[in-house]
Amino acid sequence: MRSFLPVDEQMDRLRRGAVDLVSEADLRRKLERSRATGKPLAVKTGFDPSSPDLHLGHTVLLRKMRQFQELGHRVIFVVGDFTAMIGDPTGKRLTRPQLTPDEVEANAETYKRQLFKVLDRGETVVVKNGDWLRPLGAEGMIRLAGQWTLARMLERDDFKTRYRNEQPISLHELLYPLVQAKDSVEMAKIPELGCDVELGGHDQIFNLLVGRDLMKECGQEPQCVLTVPLLVGMDGHEKMSKSLGNAIAVEDPPKEMYGRTLSIPDTLMWDWMFLLTDTPKTAIDEKRRAVAASELHPKAVKQELARAIVTFFHGEEAAHTAESEFERIFGGGRGGVPDEIELKVVVGAGTLANLLVESALAPSKNEARRLVEQGAVTIDGDRASNPTAELSPREAPYLFKVGKRKFLRLQIL
User: Fold this and answer.
1) Among 83-87, 254-258, 264-268, where is mean pLDDT lowest?
2) What SS3 string covers 162-210?
3) Cβ atoms 385, 352 nearer than 8 A
4) What are the φ and ψ backbone dihedral angles of 75, each rounded to 5 degrees?
5) Would you list the domain boundaries of the chain?
6) CATH for the stretch 343-412
7) Tens-digit pLDDT profile for residues 96-147
8) Which of 106, 187, 382, 395 has an alpha carbon within 20 to 30 A of 181's alpha carbon?
9) Kind of pairing between the strands at 406-412 and 398-402
10) Is 163 in contact with 194 (CB distance < 8 Å)?
């Protein structure tokens, strides 16, 4: 029989960073029952493996799962191998491309490796929703669709907007919230799983509430719903997304993770510190006051944040090394060139713009030209100005620097 902290203490921890809690009274009641019986709550979160990498935005939710684990509750990570092939329409203006089973499986394997950078492996149950959704078949899906109406589905803001703007909504997208909700219903039937609480990003609130309602209709005790904020990416505007280029992946090397964290806008560092570290809110508020009063430099706050993030994923020694290397290169130290720089080899002369694209220093020729014209590219320490300049083969590699932190030695044969 497990023992649990007093309910008020558990609620205080779980409220940190929460946006929606439906309902607080229900969660308190479940926690009181859990404490009385010694039985942990079953806390579920689903991730569709729609891309191969988890980033810091995902870890806001994973950290909330970890909080439940630290409080003694059982966390169930649902790999959405079935739902990923539908494609979550949340926040999308257009229909997502559907993934193949092989793509989903490959992405799922990377998720299962990366999630344990945050969660306790021994206290985490990993399941795939295809195990109970695929056996439904055509008849089961038709019966499931009969439990909801189109009018209720169009209450979703993204569906409502697309319908009003005469943008296509594929029929399979309408099934997504129901299929996700079916996860909760089916898991509640399995004694070793269960579903007392479902967690998700704030943009998932409609889907999570459908699960709560569907459980009621099936005569089950409805799940509580707790959502967390969407982490704004490095650009300071859009939510973190690998496709937008504003993400830091959980498997990024320590030096890159540290440097990219220091590059975020000052206005962003407070939310990142609150959502990505365990720094008490009172301490964050005091730092914010000190910065506003010019008693503390914003860079010092970002350095503390970057150290905490790198330490969490790679350890203290890696964080110290990453900080020392960053300061040596960008803090006015000698040299300004990393000790280890990747070497790439290309065959034949080429224009600067073409070589930047070929060596993955720029995503396109237009972007390569823009970088050169803005003075963001140096070759052997000299600033480049002509994107059409031709670089010829030579014995020694060229040393490229793009922006503040991208270095590459390019050998042209």
Assistant:
1) 83-87
2) HHHCCCCCCHHHHHHHHHHHHHHHHHHCCCCCCCCEEEEEHHHHHHHHH
3) no
4) -105, 135
5) 7-228, 252-330, 343-412
6) 3.10.290.10
7) 566 777 888 888 888 888 999 999 998 899 999 999 999 999 999 899 888 8
8) 106
9) antiparallel
10) no
Closest CA to 169 of 156, 184, 182: 156
Q: Is 360 left (phi over 0), alpha (psi -120 to 50) or beta?
A: left
Neighbour-count burial for 282-304, b at 16+ CB within 10 Å, e otherwise: eebeebeeebeeeeeeeeebbbe
Q: Which CATH superfamily is domain 7-228 in?
A: HUPs (3.40.50.620)
CA distance 76 to 65: 9
197 bridge partner residues: 43, 224
C-alpha 322 chain-centroid distance? 22
Fold of 252-330: Tyrosyl-Transfer RNA Synthetase (1.10.240)
> Position 16: which residue type?
R
Averaged pLDDT score across all residues of the chain: 88
- pLDDT tens digit sequence for 317-356: 999 999 988 887 766 544 567 767 788 888 888 888 988 8
Amino acid (one-letter) located at 207: N
